[in-house]
Amino acid sequence: MLPVIKVTNLSKHFKDIVAVDNLSFTVNPGDVYGFLGQNGAGKSTTIRMLLSLVKPTEGRIEIFEMDLFTHQKEILRQAGAVIEKPDVYKYLTALENIQLFSKISGGAKLTRSQLLDQLAVVGLQDRASSKVKTFSQGMKQRLGIAIALVHDPKLIILDEPTNGLDPQGIADVRNLILRLSKELGKTVVVSSHLLSEIQLIANRLLIINKGKKLVEGNASELFDPAETLVELETLDNEKAIQQLQQSPWSSHLQPARQNTIVLKMDKADIPTFHLELVQMQIPVLSFQPRHSLEDYFLQLTTSNEHVAAIAN
Q1: Partners of 208 in the β-ladder
Q2: Which residues form the ABC transporter domain (predicted)?
Q3: Tell me: the pLDDT tens digits for 197-250?
Q4: Cα separation of 230 and 274, whole Å?
C-alpha cells in the first residue's frame, strides 16, 4: 500500500528558531491520522508545509506519490484543508458561502442540489438558508469542512478543528471526521492538542515535541495493555519510592508527575502490585491505573530523568 503522504527529513528554521526538526512520517490511504503535540510543538508549521503555504528549510514532501513543490497544483486539487478557524462570510448564508467557494475552487461546477448534499454531509442542510452570523462556532467549523469538501478531495487536512468549541461542537466535529473516513473513504489528517478527542477517532498517530518526532504508529499498538501506567499517591512519596526501589517493582518506576509516583506494568499484574503495597505497609492515598493517550503523551514528553532522582 503506497502512502498518501510521505514526509522525509523535514525541517523548518525561522532564523534561530527550529520549528520542525528532521521530521519523517507517512500517512496511508483511509487513515484518520492524529498529529499530536503541545502548543508550539511544530504541528501548524508542518501542516502549512504540507499545504505549500510555508517552504521547508530542508526535507522532502510527497503527496499522492508526487513531489509537492514540483506538482503543487495537481496535488492541491485532490486535497482540502481547514486551517484553524474557517474563513467564511458571515453575512452570506451557508449555501451562498459554499456556492462562492465552489466557483473559485476550479473543480467541476456543482448544482444547487449537489451543494445542498455537501451541506447535508456536515449536518447543515436545515440551515442552508441561514446567515452564517447566526451560527455557533461549531457550525462554522462544519461549514468550513463542507467548503473543503466541495471539490471532492481524497485528502482532508484539519488543523486544530475543535479549538474553541463547546462539548457539543467537539462531538459534532468528531463524528463528522469519522464519517468522512468510514462512509466517504477520505484520508484525514487531524492536528490537535486535545488528546482525549484524538484517541476516539485516530487509527494511527504521530506525536511530536519541540519539532521532533517522538513516536509514530498504530493506536492499537501504542496502547498495549502491557504498557498500563499506575499512578500512586502516598503519605510519604519519598519513602515509598525508596521502598519500591528495594523491591521487584523497581524496574517498573517511571518519571514522577507532580505529587504522584508512576509505574508501568501489565494490566494483569495490577492486583499483585496492590497486594504487595499492603504487605510493604505503604500508606496509599490514591491508586489509579491509567491507559490513555494523555498518559502516554505525558510519559513521552516528561523529563527523561528517572524517578530515583527524586529520592536523592
Answers
A1: 213
A2: 5-235
A3: 888 899 999 989 899 998 888 877 776 667 788 889 999 999 999 999 999 999
A4: 10
